[in-house]
Fold this sequence. Notes:
Domain YCII-related: 1-111
Oligomer: single chain
Largest sheet: 4 strands, antiparallel
Number of domains: 1
InterPro entries: Dimeric_a/b-barrel, YCII
Radius of gyration: 17 Å
Organism: Streptomyces evansiae
Protein name: YciI family protein
Family: Belongs to the YciI family.
Number of helices: 3
Amino acid sequence: MKYLLMxxxxxxxxxxxxxxxxxxxxxxQDAWNARYRASGxxxxxxxxxxxxxxxxxxxxxxxxxxxxxxxxEAKEYLCSLYLLDVESADRAREMAARMPWAxxxxxxxWPIEHDGFAPKPGGGA
Length: 125
């Protein structure tokens, strides 16, 4: 089963973490990543740029239209995401709880319903 783990935050929040604690958490997160990458359960791990660097893209009459954004009403936004492939929901929850950042904030855990890259039954593309 695949799951997406998501961490939310903002630049102000990250900048308020004392440098020593931030270094410690990053080292702990690197170790978490290495542990679960080695087990084959962590498929991907990404940290995102600040929301001010994001854009919104729409299709208007077949042409891409890009604007600055998103314009968020929430103070915190998606800043890191992790893709897991685990045996069960319990295992995904266990891994999320072991994330170093889970000591400060909740980690959002979403089951993945559809895998667009999975082989089709019967071998079709």
